[in-house]
Specification:
seven-stranded mixed β-sheet, four-stranded antiparallel β-sheet, binds pyridoxal-5'-phosphate, disordered C terminus, 15 strands, alpha/beta
Amino acid sequence: MAALIDYSKLYSDGLPDPAAKWAPFPKYYFVGGNNDPEEIPIEGLVEAAASVLRREGSKLAIYNLGMGPQGYPNLRQFVADKSRAQRGIPASIDDIVITTGSGQGLDMISRLLVNPGDTVLCEEFCYQGALNRFRKLGAKIEGMKLDGDGIVIDALAQQLADLKAKGITPKFIYTIPTIQNPTASILPLDRRHGLIKLARDYNVAIFEDECYADLLWEGVEAPPALYALDPGCVIHLGSFSKCLAPALRLGYIIAEWEIMRRLLPLKGDSGTGALDQMIVAEYFSKNFNQHLGHLNGVLHDKLKAMVEAVEREFGASAECWAPKGGIFLWIKLPEGIDTRKLMKPAAEAGIIFNEGPAWAVSPHNSSNHLRLCFAMPSKQVIRDGVAAFAQVCYEQTGIPLRSANVQRA
Ligand SMILES: Cc1ncc(COP(=O)(O)O)c(C=O)c1O
């Protein structure tokens, strides 16, 4: 057999680090935006698939179903209807492109806007995937201060003024205003108006990521999307990963045509999977509200199980941010604990979690934080996993003090 070509000498410059071999999930897997396997509406999707395939299946013979690069019109119509009803967004289907997960949308918008050296403002605790993308394109990231209601507008006003004094105009503000990742807060209406005013005053664009906006606890109301308040200032991103299934890889961007026409050439594939789009449009155009109401009830129950477990196992040593929806809990441990140092011993005990600095602009105010995702594991796995994690934490740091805990069962 001929010798293998030495590919390692042929690779292009600037490649990412090589991938590790995939390993099955450990027992206590508290990372990743996964959904609850019990909540995939299998029979409904089967029926939807049969009906849409019988009606329109022959169109699969043609790239983009012969309907253009923005995606299956019925799915765009569903996105337009849902965005109008629930987020106040007055978009037509021409303002919408379906993407291969909202991750592809993030790539497209980042590529559209970021030049090396640009300053980008992100919430001080922020989705790692967005931070990584902006950094990869050479952006300098500045953190915006957060409290339990999201971006602190007075602090942002001061920050923008300070940047201006140094001659810096940030390119855009990246924000997750409705169920922020990782703090799960909702930005109130007055702050939304304040944010838009600042963006207008300083000529800074807003990139709004509403990946989790469907996942609200019963009785929780979210103000209109930033896009609804000022479409000329905002590019809006959404996803079907969290309200239905991340493995489907469906997301969307809403933007005015002048921006959309520059985004579309950046899509870089020959269309997002059309069968997935057809099935989801068929299913959700009849069942969305009912599906979501049930899913949110299940997720809220799991959150309660997790918060109870954290309180029981960590006592006063853990402070939880109070989620208003979503699939994750952001937890602060006492000063001096570095959650990065807990990763390895936790993994040895079968526990995977997100350490704070990976979900933050700076390690300085996040190294004692961590994120736990609760949608995929069962309530019993949540209880056992949090107990196992508290044990690891105690062995490594002496915290939580066992006496600080309420009585153990
Ligand atoms: C805030 C945010 N935006 C975007 C994404 C990308 O999700 P997807 O590509 O599955 O739509 C995620 C994933 O967890 C996220 O948390």
